């Protein structure tokens, strides 16, 4: 294959069509046998190839000498191809501009391993543009603190409930140590949650041996449930602080629903 036939193929010619047209450029008029011999095209393929070239408008058959073919002059053929390509490109450009974007896809990724949790949580923190809502144990807050500080410096609102004394002194950090005691009693694990921009969440459990299982997801319903879980802990902490422990206990005891929920949690 030479450079000319290769470029013809790039313009939409088949291999045999490119060879046949180039053969006719080299010798015309010519019959099928001569074209096939010059272009090294199998005799079984030459006439169907010539027919396709006639249909394409690349060659013409002699009107006076049957079986003899002439090539359409290269400048005429290439101008026609250029016009066709220009029209096609303009239509494609218009169609692409009108293409509707695919809606955001919800993604779920289950993972194992403490390092995987830290890497995924750090990525969510680094990608956050407006807000971070977190529920962390002191161990995990310590390891994620540098990323959280960087997010705060770039203007991301960081709200964190920490099941112990927070490292940061910011007003948006809440000490949920009392909630952590009951949470650990229920799960016997450290449950950590990191939500970025209300769009994605990392949830993980760490047991006493350091075994870690978790999920990262953009599924809206799971993000919402995670947000409500953190808000529940913060509101509950604020409510107990306002009412006092004994009055809160009495409130729960006086309500069958609250009593059931507290005792079953």
Please, could you describe this protein's structure?
This is Sugar-specific transcriptional regulator TrmB. With 265 residues, the chain is α+β, with helices and mostly antiparallel strands. The protein has two domains: 3-97, Orthogonal Bundle (Arc Repressor Mutant, subunit A); 108-264, Endonuclease Chain A (Endonuclease, Chain A), CATH 3.30.870. It contains eleven helices and nine strands. It has helices at 3-10, 15-26, 32-39, 43-56, 74-97, 114-127, 138-153, 177-187, 220-243, 245-254, 256-264, and strands at 59-61, 69-71, 108-112, 131-136, 157-162, 173-175, 190-196, 200-206, 212-217. The strands form two sheets. It has a seven-stranded mixed sheet with strand order 3-9-8-7-4-5-6, with helices on both faces. Strands 1-2 form a two-stranded antiparallel sheet. It is rod-shaped and about 110 Å long. The termini are far apart.
Number of DSSP strands? 9
CA radius of gyration: 36 Å
Main sheet: strands, sense, barrel: 7 strands, mixed
Distance separating the two termini: 77 Å
Count of separate structural domains:
2
Q: Helix proportion of residues, in percent?
A: 55-70%
Under CATH, the homologous superfamily of the largest domain reads Endonuclease Chain A
Report the top-level CATH class of the largest domain.
Alpha Beta
CATH fold name of the largest domain? Endonuclease, Chain A
Unreliable runs? none
Order of helices and strands: HHHHEEHEHEHEEHEEEHHH
The best one-word shape is rod-shaped
Count up the helices. 11
Measured by DSSP, the beta-strand proportion falls in: 15-25%
CATH architectural type of the largest domain: 2-Layer Sandwich
- Spatial order of strands in the largest sheet: 3-9-8-7-4-5-6
Label the structural class: alpha+beta
Mean pLDDT: 90
InterPro entries: TrmB-like (IPR051797), Tscrpt_reg_TrmB_N (IPR002831), WH-like_DNA-bd_sf (IPR036388)
Domain Transcription regulator TrmB N-terminal: 8-75
Pfam families: TrmB
Protein name: Sugar-specific transcriptional regulator TrmB
